[in-house]
Amino acid sequence: MAVEGLAVPLGYVIFLLGATVPIYIAFGLIGLTGFREITRFQSHSSFYYRLNPATKILALFLIAFSMSSAGLWLGLAATLLILVSYFTLADGPRKFALGFLFTVALVWATIWGSLADHISFILSNGPPGPFFYQELTRAIAGDFAVSGVFLLALILVMTSTPSAVVRALRKIRFPNPVTFSLVVGMKSVPSLLDTINSTVKVQFMRGFGMRASKALWPLYTIAAILLALIPSLILVLRGARNTAISTGTRAFGAYKTRTYVREPTFGAADAVTIVLAAGFFVAVFLT
Fold it and tell me: How far apart are CA 42 and CA 60, in angstroms?
């Protein structure tokens, strides 16, 4: 009975631990500056930067679809391989560190939420059976799969300019509304993070959280972000008018085809990437 009485409070403790650690990683270690770095394009000449954006989008769809059915070890291996490839990006060690912290925060948050329910169940009903370990393994595999897809999506954002994405998608006859939405998102998210980061810094410069201990700074950062969110959104939404004027001036979508100063290329690196992504897709569904 005493053990059963501990089930609910212990479950809450585990749940809170799972919630606070990702918050401290996201806002204490990564910070808004880190999120800005992994959501914007930086010029470089390594492997990912030479790929056609359409190749990266196709590989992303293939891996995202197959990751949902990948087992624990296959999903973990794919996620680690994607994470290690961050070393090839501009400022690679920094990007790898940010990607690693992002993965830890994402996996920690989801796994600990599942553990809270499972441990409460164990304390109330006794030792777990084989079904418990199957469910836990499935949950961990799903968490790593989601983090791997996010890491790959960030590679697309960090290694492709919005204009290059437009060129590639128009070449393969991708629907204009989807193309436009994707490009607007690629432009708006970094702008929103820039505005929020500037607003948060102004709040701290004016004394917000000045007397708080350093351990509470991530929580004050969240509070400052919430206070800055609406003004930042208003500022970014005002820029939507400029985007509409720009696309109208360039006759976006007025014709079925368009000409380009620089034509999208498809080389051996693109072929290898597609083969590898397709091979992973086949391997997942054959195992």
Answer: 20
Percentages of the chain per state (helix, strand, coil), in multiples of 5: 80, 0, 20
* C-alpha–C-alpha distance, residues 170 and 177, integer Å: 11
Calculate ∠ Cα 86-92-97, nearest 5°: 75
The whole-angstrom separation of Cα 193 and Cα 188 is 9
Residue spans per domain, the chain? 2-281
**pLDDT tens string 34-87:** 888 888 888 888 889 888 888 888 888 888 888 877 777 787 888 899 999 999
* pLDDT tens profile 144-186: 788 888 999 999 889 988 878 877 777 777 777 777 777 777 7
The C-alpha atoms of residue 13 and residue 36 are separated, in whole angstroms, by 32
For residues 207 and 226, give the distance between their C-alpha atoms in angstroms, rounded to a whole number: 17
| Separation between Cα atoms, residue 15 and residue 205, nearest integer Å | 34
**At 222, which amino acid appears?**
I
User: Could you tell me the pTM of the whole model?
Assistant: 0.78
What is the rounded distance in angstroms from the CA atom of residue 175 to the CA atom of residue 250?
A: 17
Amino acid at the residue 190 = P
Per the listing, tokens 């969110």 go with: 229
Q: How far apart are CA 168 and CA 164, in angstroms?
A: 6
